[in-house]
Write a structure and sequence with these properties.
Helix content: 55-70%
Structural class: alpha+beta
Cofactor: FAD
CATH class of one domain: Mainly Alpha
CATH superfamily of one domain: Butyryl-CoA Dehydrogenase, subunit A, domain 3
Subcellular location: Peroxisome
GO molecular function, one term: acyl-CoA oxidase activity
Shape: globular
Number of strands: 11
Protein name: Acyl-coenzyme A oxidase
Family: Belongs to the acyl-CoA oxidase family.
CATH architecture of one domain: Up-down Bundle
Length: 672
């Protein structure tokens, strides 16, 4: 990737010179081939070099209102350019994915895109929940942005617990209409992106009532604002929820209904249906209602890998430029990246960004396969997809948030600067720990699935791929697995940990029931164990999936690249094992000497990666405008860029600030 200033920092260049593999080969593998890479680079050049999309004033110097207005301006410019690409024959869903994702998208709109929910949730909701007739009516207009939509599910008083939602949609048989109503303040919709000032339509999730009965949560299309004036429709109360830790360009809003009437055809009826006489027809599976959320969770996993790769790229490059302290007193200060503790902060996070991306690709394939099976009426693998998507969303978001923060701290005081872009990246990542399912709740949903799988395994029934290890665990005569520090042995050990935790949780639920607790009470009393079981299951899946995907890449890679990829994966596996030592001691025969050997293997992997760390992050092929950080620019001119950023402060645009004459000088001249 070319330097932005012409002169590359000599230490950073020296790192590139010592790289043992071909960067372009890694990049081709990383993005999915030559065609994908060519399209990616064309797209980045097309968007990032457009003056209309350049940042004129750093966003952190704008007011909340100014930031939103700038975000809307940029979003409309960007999506007009997507249309232009379509006219040029450069069409495809990848253009939308790039603009809405954690790389190019946040390079252009650093505080989030107010149209994201329109594309990521409103459109998929119409496809996933709408009949062919409803899709014909709504999808074309929405795709062309003749209308802008959002997806309103979370309320002021309820989030992840969907059955607790209070918004009602009551069917009026006389007029063949639904009456949407917010009976309490806590029933107000709260958080939907684009809701406050951007969208004029919405898919609303509400409790359906007909013939005096509640039929649960169903989706409805509701017009929020007039299509010409944008004034809120009668009975609609709508607004902005205020400033947040991050994502302040997303335009999150609140929404209340005062007996708002919509026609019967506005209930999306691909799955559940309501007949004209008010008769409710159940869907073949209640889980079909949650298809949109599963799609979004798959997308989130991919975005977490992207955000973490940005943070790691910034921190690794900065650590190669920054010199701090001596290792040998008689020699000059060393690069920070030469300190083993710094390598241990950064390299496992680097490995995670790669494993998360590969596993999200794996999950994406699984999602598409299950979706095609659903269209044929085959629901068999839906629970498995739901379970693995839930725990992967929880683990990747939590680990990415911790990884971004670790990268920030690894950059010392300069990492604390807003312009370093750790703050903005952390705001994006940590939000994902909560939206589309709070992480603990999602882990418990996975645990509920694992409990059912455990019962199936005990009965000797056939198990789906992600839980087949339970059968091996049950067939083993030894409660503790013989420790084996090969990669396959670590995978089996982590699976044994998950199975052992699951066995104990099942036993404890049974014991609590025998002492008089109901199943629900016993499950709640065992919920800490259950969440940890789901965590262990997910981490075992990540290590196994990462191994399979890395080996798949190595099959076609050069020996030099294959060696680096395996080192990355080995580091990830060793790190996960060492962080699970307490559990490995409980469920395997690992000994102190085994632990020492495992620690030595991890340190060897750090040493092996050290010469290639900059080469690896360079191979992510992230332009400077996507990184958005003076600490991580390709040329490594950290201090010059930090100084230029400091000069942009509004306080530096005049030699004396008015507060001196208004407040400080009178205070200093007054007698105390």
């Amino acid at each position: 990737m070319p330097s932005t200033s012409g002169t590359v920092n000599k230490d950073l260049q020296a790192e590139r010179d010592k790289c043992t593999f071909n960067n372009e080969e890694f990049t081709l593998w990383w993005v999915g081939g030559e065609t994908k890479l060519k399209e990616k680079r064309f797209r980045e050049d097309f968007f990032l070099n457009d003056p209309e999309l350049q940042e004129k004033v750093p966003l952190h110097f704008l007011s909340h209102k100014e930031l939103y207005e700038e975000s809307v301006r940029k979003a409309t410019v960007a999506f007009r350019k997507v249309r232009k690409m379509n006219e040029m024959g450069q069409d495809g869903v990848d253009n939308y994915s790039a603009l809405l994702g954690g790389l190019l998208g946040t390079g252009i709109l650093k505080q989030g895109n107010p149209l994201t929910v329109h594309y990521v949730m409103f459109l998929p909701a119409i496809l996933g929940h709408g009949t062919p007739e409803q899709q014909a009516e709504w999808f074309g207009r929405a795709w062309n942005c003749e209308i802008i939509g959002t997806y309103a599910q979370t309320e002021l008083g309820h989030g992840t617990f969907l059955r607790g939602l209070e918004t009602t949609a009551t069917y009026d048989e006389r007029t063949k209409e639904f009456v949407l109503h917010s009976p309490t303040l806590t029933a107000y919709k709260w958080w939907p992106g684009g809701l406050a000032q951007t969208a004029n339509y919405c898919v609303v999730m509400a409790q359906l009532y007909s013939k005096g009965q509640c039929h649960g949560i169903q989706p409805f299309i509701v017009q929020l604002r007039d299509e010409e004036s944008h004034v809120p429709m009668k009975g609609i109360t709508i607004g902005d929820i205020g400033n947040k830790l991050g994502m302040n360009g997303v335009n999150n809003g609140f929404l209340g209904f005062d007996h708002v009437r919509i026609p019967r055809k506005n209930m999306l009826m691909k799955n559940a249906k309501l007949l004209e006489d008010g008769t409710f027809v159940k869907p073949p599976s209640q889980a079909l209602t949650y298809g949109t959320m599963m799609f979004v969770r798959v997308v989130i996993c991919r975005d977490m890998a992207a955000y973490l790769s940005k943070a790691v790229t910034i921190a690794v490059r900065y650590s190669a430029v920054r010199r701090q302290s001596h290792i040998n007193p008689d020699q000059p200060e060393v690069q920070v990246i030469d300190h083993l503790t710094q390598q241990y902060k950064l390299f496992p996070a680097l490995a995670k960004s790669i494993i998360f991306k590969l596993t999200s690709d794996n999950l994406w394939d699984m999602y598409n396969q299950v979706t095609s099976e659903l269209d044929k009426g085959d629901l068999e693998r839906l629970p498995e997809l739901h379970a693995i998507a839930c725990c992967l969303k929880a683990i990747t978001t939590a680990d990415a948030a911790a990884g971004v923060e670790l990268c920030r701290m690894a950059c010392g005081g300069h990492g604390y600067m807003t312009c370093s872009n750790f703050y903005g990246t952390y705001g994006m990542v940590t939000a994902a720990c909560t939206y589309e399912g709070e992480n603990t709740v999602l882990l418990l949903q996975t645990a509920r699935y694992l409990m059912k799988a455990w019962q199936q395994a005990q009965r000797g029934q056939e198990l789906v791929p992600t839980v087949q290890y339970l059968a091996r665990f049950l067939s083993s005569k030894n409660r503790r697995m013989d420790w084996d520090d090969s990669i396959g042995g670590i995978v089996r050990a982590l699976q044994t940990v998950a199975a052992g935790k699951l066995r104990l949780a099942a036993e404890h639920i049974e014991q609590r029931q025998k002492r008089g607790a109901t199943l629900e009470e016993a499950t709640n009393q065992t919920s800490i164990e259950l969440a940890r079981t789901a965590d262990a299951h997910c981490r075992a899946f990540l290590v196994q999936s990462g191994c399979e995907m890395i080996e798949k890449g190595c099959a076609t890679a050069s020996p030099e690249l294959a060696k680096v990829l395996r080192t990355i994966y080995h580091l990830y596996a060793y790190d996960e094992a060492l962080k699970s030592l307490g559990d490995l001691l409980r469920f395997t025969t690992i000994s102190e000497s085994d632990i020492n050997r495992l620690q030595a293997k991890l340190e060897d992997a750090l040493t092996e990666l050290r010469p290639n760390a900059v080469g690896i992050v360079d191979s992510f092929d992230l332009p400077d405008d996507v990184l958005g950080s003076p600490l991580g620019a390709y040329d490594g001119n950290v201090y010059e860029r930090l100084y230029e950023e400091a000069k942009k402060s509004p306080l530096n645009q005049e030699p004396v600030n008015q507060s001196f004459h208004m407040y400080l000088k009178p205070f200093m001249k007054s007698s105390l």
